[in-house]
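Async update (no meeting this week)

Hi team, since we skipped the sync, here's where things stand on the single-chain job. The sequence we agreed to prioritize is pasted below, unchanged from the tracker. I ran it this morning and attached the output directly underneath so nobody has to dig for it. Comments welcome in thread, and please keep replies under the output.
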Amino acid sequence: MKLKNLFLGAVAGLLAVSFTACSSDDQGTIVKVPTLESINSRCFILNSGKSKDNNAGLAFYAPNKELGLLKDIYEVANAKKMGDTGQSIIYQDGYMYIILSGSKKLLKLDSEGKEVKSMSFSTEDGVPRYLVYAGGKLYVTLWSNKVVRIDADTFDKEAYVSVGVRPEEITTMNNKLFVANSGVSSNRGNTVSEIDLATFTVAKTHTVDMNPNCVTTANGNVFVISRGNYNDIKSSFQKISLADGTSTSLGRATHMGVYKNVVYVVDSYTDWNSESKLTKNTFYSYDTTTGAVNQTSFLKNIPEVLQSTSIYMFEVSSVDGSIYIGTSDYKTNGDIYRFDAQGNFVEKFDCGGINPIEAVFFTKK
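Output:
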């Protein structure tokens, strides 16, 4: 039963409780989640968990402080664990869609975290990785070297198209899909597939630097981050020329996010060959209206620990441009560092799970 008419004082006390649900071998009482109906500004953080530990999770955070962080909100709302290895989350038209790569599942949740629908991927499909929404359809990259089109309402698999080896992130722009084909360790990829949505076929193949993983769009442009070979070939942030299928490197990078016409870029570089294994984080931006790289950090008063801690998650809120940076030690709950749209440090908080990987932001309709 939902709790109604929550007073702020009662909510504050409630937040001190760790919200968990019973697993199949735990016969304790299931704790109900406080209603989120009155919460306007919402952020859901997907925690990947550890591979094969079945501890992926979803945390709820209210940016305007109407409520504090709620851990394991999926487990509480649905009285079951989410699954293994949370990989990607998107929000569209009142629903959240989540890929669990370890469990090979796709989930559809309402705006409070309640499961509406789920589906599994077959052995032939391979491991699902990332997804995007366009025109009532979901498009999911699969490690069977394909992209599958799924009806967002019925969850029926409608069609497949073959792309490059080990496709990772996928994005959409102007009735096209763009897919980063990472390849495998013995044969790193260097292409981005451009898929025509009308025909659901590969229209073009763009050449990029080695091992593309991340892809996004901004102001009519397509950007990609390639990881290199994790040794002598470093990662790179590139702009793709849609006309001739080539790309231009704009700097080194590991993460990126977009707000309005600016791409915010992070280079979280760890020198694994050094004795100290020192990490150095660099923050810069690219203005899509002028085509200029701004090497001045877009963050201010950065906490000292964040200067040299490996960054696991980087998200820019589509609602207000605020920035969320997640860190992890791969063993305990990660931390989120929040900055406002002007780059001012706001706060640090526990993300409610291991390995925060992605987040979605929206306001209640």
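Quick observations from my side:
The radius of gyration is 20 Å.
The first helix runs from residue 8 to 14.
Reply here if anything looks off.
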